[in-house]
Amino acid sequence: xxxxxxxxxEEEKKENRKEYLExxxxxxxxxxxxxxxxxxxxxxxxxxxxxxxKKNTILVKKKEKVTCQCGCNVVKNGLKRHERNKKHINLMxxxx
Length: 96
Known about the structure:
mainly alpha, 2 domains, 96 residues, 6 helices, single chain, two-stranded antiparallel ribbon
């Protein structure tokens, strides 16, 4: 008798992938590190070209303003940093 199903649902595929990544974390990390070292110039060139082609969209996203829960207007790129800020914490304590 077969012990494996002939097909997997999307949830089962995701679960299997997650389990694989968790069990082979060290092996994958080492492989990625070696790959980066052997292809360092190629990787850097790829990221440089990517930045040049997408420069306008990247800069627009970095400048995008968001209103925080505390009421302050913050650049979206710095929202997490703002949330750790004393000003944000004090305003949130006053709101609650």
